[in-house]
Design goal:
By secondary structure, this protein is of the alpha+beta class. Strand 11 and strand 12 form a beta hairpin. The structure holds adenosine-5'-diphosphate. The site of adenosine-5'-diphosphate has 19 residues, from helix 8 and helix 9.
Length: 447
């Protein structure tokens, strides 16, 4: 469809024509596919215009047409050849404009024109040229009813409109009620949740109090244990040292000669007492560390000197030719730490590495990582299964079946080393693969 497609034109002369035109308008609107409400709107708008026009003692020509309007189609009704001026009509028809999508009043060469438009819905049946022809034929055959008929129709429409309003009002009331109900529900839920939250909070607070109490008890128990260990080990040290001294004296050349068997037994006593002393010393160290009784003496530690010392004191332990023992020149010259404690940790790790490495290499290096320093003790020894990486830091834990190639162990070295690492403000971790070797890394702040 390109231009306007006229459907019907009729003249408006006498008062009865108002009813007629109203009927026709509704008919046309229905035929082109407007919905019932829209049919009533356009019919009412046109009858209002007609009423005003006839009231002004002028007659007019009314044309119904449909025409494209952008992407949609509109039903356009024009009332033409009016002798009333546009200004007056506009003033009188202001209220009518609300019933249609568009209404204009213009003065033209053939008199004043009022035209109105109502947009057809996109879902309405398509108006093909054949369909338009059919509508035209139908309209021209249309015989309008009497004014009474039209009045009846109007009444019917009014009843329908009233029913619709009532239905809407009922729906609104129902919605309001539902809303109120929902609000009540929400409030109840809110109260319930608040109460539950309060209850939970009370529970959490009580739980925390209990937790605090428990951790205090735990701290007290741990302290008691450390104190006990420290005291016992301290008390044990003197007699064990005495046993070692006495057994050494017994076996001395200057003492009375012993039988071979006696000498063997005295050696056994001395060996056992010596193991016991190691254990007692280790226990004492660990107990002191755990009781927080180790106060580091902070100072600038010369790593070159320390590494030299470690190289010297530990070389005698590296007795196997199959194992290379290397303490690299330190890549970091010094750090701020406690020299004695740091040396204890490194010596401990190196001794372990030498103890569990049959061939390959044991190496100590140091590197700077950001503001920290990492000491790395690596070996190509037996290695430790991943699930035991944390267990070896437990007191007395020794990997089952692991055999030290030299010296005995107490299972206290690594827990002690980790404690010292913590006291020095750092951490100790292990990375190890069974059969390939282990790497113990001590990370400390450099200043
Ligand atoms: P120990 O006195 O037995 O050496 P530690 O606490 O120092 O006690 O070590 C605990 C256990 O961890 C050792 O008994 C050993 O089984 C294992 N372990 C420690 N270091 C190494 C290592 N470098 N290679 C293999 N196993 C190790």
């Amino acid at each position: 469809m390109t231009g306007p497609q006229p459907l019907l034109t009729m003249r408006l002369r006498v008062a009865q024509d108002v009813f007629l035109i109203r009927q026709l308008a509704r008919e046309v609107a229905r035929e082109v596919g407007l919905e019932q409400q829209d049919q009533t709107r356009i019919a009412t708008a046109l009858s209002e215009v007609s009423r005003v026009v006839l009231g002004g003692y002028t007659d007019a020509e009314v044309t119904f047409a449909i025409r494209p309007d952008g992407v949609s189609t509109i039903l356009r009704v024009s009332v033409e050849r009016l002798t009333l001026g546009a200004a007056r009509l506009r003033a009188e028809l202001g209220h009518v404009g609300r019933l249609v999508d568009k209404m204009e009043v213009e003065d033209g060469e053939t008199g004043t024109v009022v035209w109105m438009a109502r947009r057809l819905s996109a879902s309405a049946p398509r108006l093909t040229p054949e369909r338009l022809e059919e509508i035209r034929a139908g309209l021209s055959a249309h015989v309008p009813g009497s004014p009474l008929d039209e009045l009846n129709v109007q009444n019917q429409q009014l009843v329908t409109a009233l029913n619709e309003v009532r239905a809407q009002r009922d729906e609104l009331a129902r919605l309001n009620e539902e809303l109120e109900e929902t609000n009540r529900g929400v409030m109840a839920l809110y109260h319930q949740l608040s109460e539950e939250l309060e209850e939970t909070n009370r529970g959490v607070v009580a739980l925390y109090a209990e937790l605090d109490e428990k951790s205090e008890q735990l701290a007290a128990a741990s302290e008691a244990k450390s104190r006990f260990l420290a005291n016992v080990s301290h008390e044990l040290r003197a007699p064990v040292t005495a046993i070692i001294g006495l057994s050494r004296l017994l076996g001395d050349e200057s003492s009375d000669p012993l039988t071979t068997e006696q000498r063997r037994q005295v050696e056994l006593i001395r060996g056992s007492a010596s193991d016991l002393l190691t254990l007692v010393n280790d226990l004492l160290d660990l107990a002191k560390a755990e009781a927080g009784r180790i106060e580091p003496t902070w100072g600038q530690v010369d790593l070159k000197a320390m590494f030299g010392q470690l190289r010297g004191t530990l070389r005698p332990l590296a007795t196997r030719d199959e194992v290379t023992f290397s303490v690299d020149e330190p890549a970091v010259s010094s750090i701020r730490s406690d020299e004695v404690l740091l040396a204890r940790v490194l010596r401990n790790l190196l001794t372990n590495a030498l103890k569990f490495t049959a061939e390959g290499e044991v190496r100590l290096t140091v590197r700077a990582i950001g503001d920290d320093v990492e000491f790395v003790v690596s070996d190509t020894g037996s290695g430790i299964a991943p699930e035991l990486h944390e267990r070896i830091f437990e007191e007395f834990y020794q990997v089952p079946g692991s055999k030290a190639l030299s010296g005995k162990g107490t299972g206290l070295g690594l827990p002690y080393a980790r404690r010292l690492a913590g006291i020095l403000g750092g951490a100790l971790r292990v990375d190890s693969t069974p059969g390939e070797g282990s790497t113990f890394t001590l990370r400390l702040p450099s200043s």
